[in-house]
Amino acid sequence: MLGLWTLTDQTIRSTLETSARRAIDVDLAGLADIYATSGREELERRIADRLAITPRDGSAPHYMLADATGRRIAGDIHQWPQLDPAISESGAIRVGEGTGAYARATRLAPNLQLLVARETSDNGALRRHVAVAFLGGGALFVLLVGALGKSAAGRLHWRIQRLNNAFRDSDDERLTAMTPRRRTDEIDELTEHSAAALARQKRLVEAYRDTSDQIAHEIRTPLTHLDGRLTRALAADPGDIVAARLLEGRADIKRLVAMLESLLDIAASKARQGDRHGLKRFNLSEMVTRICELYADSAEESGHMFAWDIAPGVLFDGEEMQLTQLVTNLLDNALKYVPKGGTIRLSLGQGPVLTVEDDGPGIAEADREKIFRRFYRSRGEASDSPGSGLGLALARAIAERHDLTIALLPSARGARFVVKEQGT
Question: Under which EC number(s) is this enzyme classified (predicted)?
Fold first, then answer.
């Protein structure tokens, strides 16, 4: 609107100036004809008559009749400008205290010259009327465009919000509601494809869960039966050698069941990575404090020094059971590898930032990322040592499910695990 007004204003100025120039030429020709037919006295009278009339458009005329030396004879201009009457020169001049005007000079006789001018600094009411029209019309246009834009943006926001809600909570009712009855644009097409993809993903996840539960049941049941048989065999008071083998068998069964549950937990956490459904805000400080109080007795029994520093009021959106497992896995890992008499420290700060560090033997730099792989055992770790190599893998899967990162950072001595939000 501003650009259009500027163009229009310049066009009006140019048109009015052109009109003024033509009016000057016509006026000058008329006065020259009066002088030729009626003489100088009639010309002076006609100039006085014209000066007595003020035009309605405000473009007042100005005249000067002078002798060959520029001395004024008649008119309201008192000083001859730098215009040559011999060649009817025209140009911009100043009238009075500085009013701009366009003028043309001509020679009427060897000792008589005439100057006709019209003001150009004020182009009259026309420009003011056009300015008011542009101001009112522009304001109305802006309001109309703003209203239409707000309406379109609101509808677009609602459509995008419906997509986001479906991704956050893809229940059957929401997926059915977001499917458009007919396509009108690319967003409807995107909504339709998204609903189909979410429904397909939901079916795959449900099929995976059903299959996983079935496999877990089919494996856990015979192992449980086998453990019961071994228990009954131990109750029959077998010999020491047989009893020792039976106890080893029960330990293997328990390790297999724990491994199976860990694998299922890892798979479930990875499948729900980025899914915020089911996450609730809870006090992480209170949860970690309870865990530390429980592990204080275990550390004392195993001959370890255990210290913790927990900032109060750390709140977090997550599944409390899973995050409890993450913390306990890190502490179990430290108690397992730190020799007797070593120190384990846990700290929790805002962010949240959870740190578990120790002064144990540490982990080789080449293994700092590999330890988070499933079933990975470091080269210095005995193959018959307790554990299945799934604890840290499960901890990372739980962290990623909650948009957290877990990493083994360099430290002067021992290992230092840090869990924090992604991007911090």
Answer: 2.7.13.3
387-423 pLDDT, tens per residue?
Answer: 567 778 888 888 888 888 999 888 888 899 999 988 7
| Domain 280-421 falls under CATH 3.30.565.10 | yes
**264 contact partners, CB below 8 Å, separation of at least 6:** 212, 216
Two tokens at 419?
Answer: 């869990």
Query: For the chain, what are the domain ranges?
Result: 2-123, 169-271, 280-421
pLDDT digits (tens, 9 = 90+) for 280-298: 889 999 999 999 999 998 8
Q: Cα dihedral angle (97, 102, 108, 111), rounded to 10 degrees? A: 30
Q: Tell me the pairing of strands 343-349 and 305-310.
A: parallel
Name the DSSP class of 276.
Answer: -
Is the preceding peptide bond at 180 cis, omega within 30 degrees of 0? no
Residue 316, token pair as written in the block: 């977090």
The correct CATH number of 2-123 out of 1.10.3470, 3.30.450, 3.40.50, 2.40.160 is: 3.30.450
The structure tokens 């144990």 sit at 360
pTM: 0.49
Contact 390, 266 (CB under 8 A): yes
From the CB of residue 340, how many other CB atoms can be counted at a distance below 10 Å?
A: 7
User: Is there a contact between 198 and 190 (Cβ–Cβ < 8 Å)?
Assistant: no
pLDDT, one tens digit per residue, over 12-49 is: 777 777 877 888 888 899 998 998 999 999 988 998 88
In sequence order, what DSSP letters do the residues of 24-76 get, joined into one string?
A: HHHHHHHHHHHHHHH-HHHHHHHHHHHHH---TTS--EEEEEE-TT--EEEES
Q: Where are the alpha helices (DSSP H) in 115-239?
A: 125-168, 172-178, 186-235
Return d(Cα 177, Cα 291) in angstroms, integer.
Answer: 44
Locus of tokens 């006026």: 27
Q: Name, in order, each residue with C-beta under 8 angstroms of 83's C-beta and a sequence gap of 6 or more.
A: 89, 90, 91, 93, 103, 104, 105, 115
Say which residue, 122 or 163, is predicted with more confidence: 163
d(CA 68, CA 77): 16
